[in-house]
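Appendix B. Chain record.
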Amino acid sequence: MVVVNYASAGLLQRNLVMVEREARTIDQDALVIVVDNWSGADERRAAREVAAAHGWLLIEPESNSGFGGGVNIGVTRALAEGATDVLVINPDAHIDRESLRRLAATTAASRTTLASPVISDSDGRTWFAGIDLLLDDGTMRARRKRVDGDTQPFEPWLSGACLWITREVWELTGGFDDDYFLYWEDVDFSRRVVSAGGALALVEDASAVHDEGGTQRAEPEVSRAKSEGYYYYNIRNRMLFAVRHLDDAAVQRWRRSIPRTAREVILRGGRRQLIQSAAPIRAYLRGVREARRIARTQGTDQKGRKWS
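Structure tokens predicted for this chain:
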């Protein structure tokens, strides 16, 4: 299994220990790889200590390679060590052995299938049960909100918080696109799996728990606020996905809706944050500016292009 860590050594101790225990009931020789994206000397030291205590393989990039970049480093190493299947899971998530068996069984039956469990938060509320990307404007819709007769074009995707990836899926796609850095890389990966002839499977009888921001739940309005990076990359990467994958007409539609969709991203964190910090507004301005810049590249060759 592969976990990308960023300033989360405490979460590794709390969650990854449980996941490893469950995984070893299926494969006693399961390899645990932690990719510790650089966040500071103290955090690197803490990651080394917890990895050494549990016999995990720690990979230490000299910089922060982002989520997709970290996954690429970890999965590439796992496959080089002989793995045929890799569980990618967030440090703030855990999963039980029966769910792992169901993910493994799903992909054993179809080796070019990317699989994900249903994911809940620690209070039992559904956090992820399939999401559709609406291609008209680049907004999202929960899978459960599909209705018969709806003609909106959409593409489903699976969350990178917990993915079961086979060697065959990895070879089909070449891994994650690390230009996204954070957010939307799982949307992009899901699309490329399908485009390459693979399939997506939401395994509804498999479940994981994602305890995102669990320590802040005592103040619900405060806990809704997201990081500046969350806002910026969600605004920016929507347009990066568009120019990577959509035709000119769709890119123009998405470009026209940048301000509206950017506001929707900011308001995921609630309104109180707007009077408590300048970070959401700063992220909005940066994200909109960068999204518009990316949109202007429409029609150029995107292969191999790098983004700041």
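Further analysis of this model is presented in Appendix C.
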